Amino acid sequence: MQLHDVVTTSADLARRRSRKAKTAVLSELLSGAPADELAAAVAFLTGAPTQGRIGVGWRTLSELRAVPAEAPRLTVSEVDSALGELAATTGSGSVRLRSELLRSLLSRATAEEQDFLFRLLTGELRQGALEGVMVEAVAAAAGVPAEAVRRAFMLSGRLPDTAHAAMAGGTAALAAFRIEVGRPLRPMLASPAESLADATAELGSVSVEYKLDGARIQVHRRGDEVHVYTRTLREVTAHVAELTDLVRGLPCESVVLDGETLALTDDGRPRPFQETMSRFGSTREEQVRALLLRPYFFDCLHLDGTDLLDAPLRERQAKLRAVAGEHVIPGEQEPADPDAILVASLEAGHEGVMVKDLDSPYAAGRRGRAWLKVKPVHTLDLVVLGAEWGHGRRHGYLSNLHLGARDPNGGPPVMVGKTFKGLTDELLDWQTAELPRHESHRDDQAVYVRPNLVVEIELDGVQASTRYPGGVALRFARVLRYRPDKDAADADTIDTVRALLTGERPGEQPREP
Ligand SMILES: Nc1ncnc2c1ncn2[C@@H]1O[C@H](COP(=O)(O)OP(=O)(O)OP(=O)(O)O)[C@@H](O)[C@H]1O
Where's the active site on this chain (predicted)? Predict the structure, then answer.
């Protein structure tokens, strides 16, 4: 298969608005793809090479100055093996070799293909939003139910492998996907509830647990081998020795646990989220000692050879308590006084509570209503589109942020507002240095960036707007923090923002208690 076909399809996808049209475009390409190039084609189209992040910067690429080829001749498998070589070329002395590999690849690409490869290599093409469309396209191309593809994708976390199985072996091959210790699966997510009373009324028999404001972890253990993954399935095992040691000591042979991790201050309060996140990038011993991470597990997905995804939460929690004991998150099943748990959680410095249906299975990768989050402050996770240069005291700093919501159909983010409120001096410093690394272009006022960074915004609500393209604008938005644990694909959608127009205004949500 020619790379050119993938590039044309990608451009075609970007032009189409409707989900149905996008699905049709993709499934046509997949139907014609040779079995040995299908996985790579799927990976390229969703912007996520199977080799993981290759880590080539925009500057490196533009400095290579490879003269484009006249006519397309690169095949998908050639590009895939070139990426494999690149990913394998690391360590000292690798810079020159990597440049040579890159130059050789780019010089065989047409101008259009070069542009595509630039975006693929820098991660700009990475479109998690396209994953849902891709799942449907794979189902259509393979003639299998979308649900079967979705389930296999959730278990494997890998669309290319899932597509390959669907096309090669149909429903039977998809049904053979199991939890594999050492292969992370996408975490189950929660929906917001208006209040604790609403949440408990909606769900019936519930577990009410602290909602801790740390970082999500998924821990896998087989024998003495332990792996730790983040919310986005990035492996951080090497950075969190205290967690791996602790998990190695749990009374079991194999286990997959879902939980939250954070560091505490000396008097037992949660430390700021940024500090917890910083541990995922650091192995410096003094930092490890100062910021000892503790795990708070809230789910058990696999124990000693048995998959528990389809078991009700009630049963999963019984296994969880048996295996993780004192490391289980604080909470109670069918509490007589749910309010008391919320009060205690907030008083301890946490975010709120999670209310979970005790009869529900673990819906990997889904944001359903079996888990409801109750927190007094409403926030949105938005994509940074750019920032304006500040004035006065903020002269020389990138300040006023342009914020976008995700297009659920895989298009570019939709701008919904701007804010410079809530930015601390530290955040100003940080974003002034960081944003230019993601720069797409600039003018006199602002630096515009590729949509990679997610920021958590607190707001009073939204209002109808004729100025912004989505017809909706944020009211009184302020920055809470950046969310390095999230990709643009995890950001809130324009539909979520629009829903606030009609719903109760988040700012008026009861401040319980
Ligand atoms: N007891 C708990 N059960 C489940 N998740 C919990 C719990 N305590 C904290 N969390 C965290 O809350 C998150 C669930 O909320 P949600 O599905 O909205 O994800 P999120 O968008 O990261 O959340 P938020 O933006 O509210 O922090 C989980 O990803 C997890 O990191």
Answer: 211 (n6-amp-lysine intermediate)
